[in-house]
Specification:
There is one protein chain. The protein is mainly α. The protein folds into four domains: 170 residues, Serine Threonine Protein Phosphatase 5, Tetratricopeptide repeat (Alpha Horseshoe), CATH 1.25.40.10; 90 residues, Tetratricopeptide repeat domain (Serine Threonine Protein Phosphatase 5, Tetratricopeptide repeat, Alpha Horseshoe); 70 residues; 37 residues, no CATH class. It is 73% helix and 2% strand. The chain contains 19 helices and three strands. The chain has a three-stranded antiparallel β-sheet, with no helix packed on it. A hairpin with a 5-residue loop joins strand 1 and strand 2. Helix 2 runs antiparallel to helix 3 and helix 14 runs antiparallel to helix 15. The protein is elongated and about 90 Å long. The structure holds zinc ion. Zinc ion binds next to loops. Zinc ion (ZN) binds next to loops.
Length: 388
């Protein structure tokens, strides 16, 4: 902790030195200059001795807030926030804002910093009011909009989030379509939780207007269609997802096959699975195909198919199935089966199934919004020998 503080503090101290040199050179007497530099070195000494509190106190005494020193004060305020001393950061930034004669840009900067302090302190409603006011005055719009967007996502206020995202796209040109589609999907899910499928469908249409390739909207709609007996439409949607992004095939596989069975269209799903397997060799898909082979031509055929496939692309999950087939007498028995089975089972049990491609967060379940970095649609099945 102290090392981090020291590292964070040093640039501030260096900047302070530069500022002092400039200020001293410009308008102070030599006596004051001596006083300043003594205090400055005292402050620096505190920093080097890992006593940031005393250092900050010295620097504060050195400089009243005015146009020349405001940036230093701002840097010290942010330093407090990064250290987790949010109350001090808030007082600090409020102090800057209260100074008369502050330049408009500096004032806005201090307000933005204060908003960040509020967010860190969990005072979301105060942060929201502050950023909203800034936006209404057209000041620093993109950064204020970004912070506001963050707040509405935390509060799960999707209507407001959508409005802010739209403004952000208009004012900065930043592409927000994918994100806005996710907000609409969240609203669709809320509608479904309230049993309102019509409203859910409206939100899903809106999602696809924002992002025509939105996978999640198709998933939700497919489930709605299935519930309402529109099984053909549901099958179409699952197939669209597989076509848009092969990495979602393992997500849809169970539901797709179940839906096809409900519709009495097993031939259709079987053919589609084979088509997907031509350029997607994920093990979930391979195992489903092995199931089909087993049902139609018996365990020996399923075993041969798995041996061929796994030779080309080894997978512990595949090996696990192979051992089951072996145990059922479909492959040559081997004494080491039990051990091998135990090892593979343990290996599989310890593996996280999903990982965020943005921040690396991993876990057992799929999240549309990564719980760690808050990015959308970045959680994917883990690839490789032990995964998909
Ligand atoms: Zn992440």
């Amino acid at each position: 902790m102290t090392e981090i503080v020291l590292l964070l503090s040093l640039p501030v101290a260096v900047y302070f030195g530069w500022w002092l040199a400039r200020t001293i050179g410009r308008r102070t007497s030599s006596k004051q200059r001596q006083l300043f530099s003594n205090q400055y070195f005292q402050g620096l000494n505190y920093l080097l001795n890992e006593q940031p509190d005393k250092a900050i106190q010295v620097f504060l005494e050195l400089a009243e807030v005015n146009e020349d020193t405001v940036e230093t004060h701002m840097a010290l305020g942010s330093l407090f926030r990064r250290r987790g001393e949010v109350d001090r950061a808030i007082r600090f930034h409020q102090n800057i804002i209260a100074k008369p004669g502050l330049g408009a840009e500096q004032r806005i900067q201090a307000l933005l910093e204060l908003g960040e302090d509020y967010m860190k302190a969990g005072l979301l409603d105060r942060a929201e009011r502050l950023f909203t006011e800034l936006i209404e005055n057209d000041a620093q719009t993109p950064s204020a909009l970004h912070s506001l967007l963050e707040i509405y996502q935390q509060e799960r206020d999707w209507d407001q989030a959508l409005e802010v995202a739209q403004r952000l796209e208009q004012s900065s040109g930043e592409h927000m379509g994918d994100t806005m589609a996710q907000f609409c999907c969240e609203m669709a899910n809320s509608a479904l939780n309230e049993g309102d499928r019509e409203r859910a469908r409206r939100h899903l249409r809106q999602a696809r207007r924002h992002d025509p390739r939105c996978i999640r909207a198709r998933f939700i709609l497919a489930r709605v269609c299935r519930q309402e007996g529109e099984v053909d439409k549901a099958l179409d949607l699952f197939e669209e997802i597989g076509g848009l992004d092969k990495e979602y095939i393992p997500e849809l596989l169970e539901e797709y096959i179940e839906t096809a069975e409900e519709a009495g269209q097993q031939d259709r799903s079987r053919a589609r699975l084979e088509e997907w397997s031509e350029d997607y060799r994920g093990i979930s898909l391979i195992l489903k195909l092995a199931d089909h082979l087993g049902e139609e031509q018996g365990g020996d055929a399923a075993g041969r198919f798995l041996v061929d496939t796994l030779t080309a692309k080894p997978s512990v999950r595949g090996l696990d199935r192979l051992i089951e087939l072996k145990a059922d007498g479909h492959l040559r028995a081997d004494d080491s089966d039990d051990i091998l089975k135990a090892v593979t089972a343990r290996l599989l049990a310890r593996q996280p199934a999903y990982r965020c491609v943005h921040c690396g967060f991993s876990g057992q379940s799929h999240h549309w919004q990564c719980p760690s970095c808050r990015h959308w649609s970045t959680t994917k099945k883990i690839q490789g020998v032990l995964g998909e």
